[in-house]
Structure formats: C-alpha cells, structure tokens
Amino acid sequence: MMKIAVFASGNGSNFQSLVEANIDASIDLLVCDKPGAYVEQRAEKNGIDIFSFSAKKFPSKADFEEKILAELRQRNIDLLVLAGYMRLVGPTLLSEFEGKIINIHPSLLPSFPGLDAIGQAFDANVKVSGVTIHFVDAGMDTGPIIAQEPVKIEEKDTKEDVQRKIQALEHDLYPKTIQHVISQWQRSVN
Ligand code: GRF
C-alpha cells in the first residue's frame, strides 16, 4: 500500500478529511512546522506519527528539509500531500519527490496565488472562485493542475460564507483527487 505524509501547519480540517476518507493508502506521518498547531491533536487522536519542527531553529531550509527527508525515508513514504503547509518546498524535498508532491489551494489558480486566497477573491468581487489541486514545483502555487472546481460567490455572501463553501468543497475534492492519482499510478505499474 502507498504511504502518505501530510504536511500541515494549522487547523488541519483537510488532514482530518484525508484521514477519514477511504483512500487506498495509509497516512503514516504528519509533518508540521508550527509546533502546537491543532492539526497535531488530530494526528495524535488518530495514532499518526508527528514530525514537528520550528524552522527558525535550523540555519537554512536545506537543513530542516534534510531532517524531514530522514523522517520520510525512515517510513518509506511515497507521496507528500500538502494541506495548509505555509511554505515553499525547497530543492532538497523537490528533487527526491519529483512529481510526488500535491498541494491544495483555495482559489481557481492561476488567480489569487499566495496568502489569503479567499480574502483576495472576496476583495476582488469575483462571482466565482473555487479550489485547485496541483502538483508542486518550485513556484508559489504553480505546477501542473490535477483538479479544479468552482464555487459561486453570491452578493449576500460574507467572507466567512465563502470560506465555508470553499472548505466544504476541499474536504470532498482532496481525498477524491488523491485517490484518483493513486489509482492512475497503480494502473501504470501493473
Ligand atoms: C486550506 O484552505 C488549503 O486550501 C490551504 O490552507 C487551508 C488549510 O486549512 N492551502 P485546514 O488547516 O486544512 O483547515
């Protein structure tokens, strides 16, 4: 069975939806760069190993990514799933997991990359935003798109309404898309 490490830094609602979904893979590690984030409690409750680190305790990104890499290798992790990991992935992880890192972003990329995508869309008064799932490359929310779905923004919607709609879609689309990618890989090796 394929082994997944989820990278998350915050609340972890997407982490939870992945844990609860029926994916043909095991989630064997949470990588968290915000020690104490709520997502760690979710991992503990589900008996999932946690590697938690504080970037500022390392001299460089390469140093903490080497440490992450050791944790991934030790568990034979195949796939990295980013779910609210608020950092760019550096060359250390990218070179070892090329084409094996997936991210979810709460907008229809290439619109509204970067921080607070929901706020950016809301402030721009767009009528449609959505969710994008893509392979990760060295850029900020760039990389080949795997799946994308729209969310309508109504006149009466507050930013919180938009956030609720987008998160509900994320919790459905992320597990489905990861299952789809895994099924494709399984077909290609068989
Ligand atoms: C999600 O909206 C995801 O798209 C973005 O970060 C957020 C994480 O939320 N990359 P949560 O921690 O999974 O609740």
Describe the structure.
The protein has 190 residues and is an alpha/beta fold. It has a single domain, classed as Rossmann fold (3-Layer(aba) Sandwich). It has helices spanning 13-20, 38-45, 61-74, 91-96, 117-123, 159-189, and strands at residues 2-7, 25-32, 49-52, 79-82, 101-105, 128-135, 145-152. Strands 3-2-1-4-5-6-7 form a seven-stranded mixed beta sheet, sandwiched between helices. Helix 2 links the parallel strand 2 and strand 3. Helix 1 (13-20) packs across helix 6 (159-189). It is globular, with a radius of gyration of 16 Å. 5-O-phosphono-beta-D-ribofuranosylamine is lined by residues 8, 10-15, 83-84, 104-106, 170.
Précis, in short:
With 190 residues, the protein is of the alpha/beta class.
Order of strands across the widest beta sheet?
3-2-1-4-5-6-7
Cα distance spanning the termini: 13 Å
Q: CATH superfamily, called what?
A: Formyl transferase, N-terminal domain
- The total count of strands amounts to 7
The tally of domains stands at 1
- Helical percent range? 25-40%
How much of the sequence lies in strands comes to: 15-25%
Bound molecules: 5-O-phosphono-beta-D-ribofuranosylamine
Q: What overall geometry do the principal axes of the alpha carbons give? A: globular
Could you report the average pLDDT, rounded to the nearest whole number?
97
**How big is the Rg?**
16 Å
Structural class by SSE content: alpha/beta
Number of helices: 6
CATH class: Alpha Beta
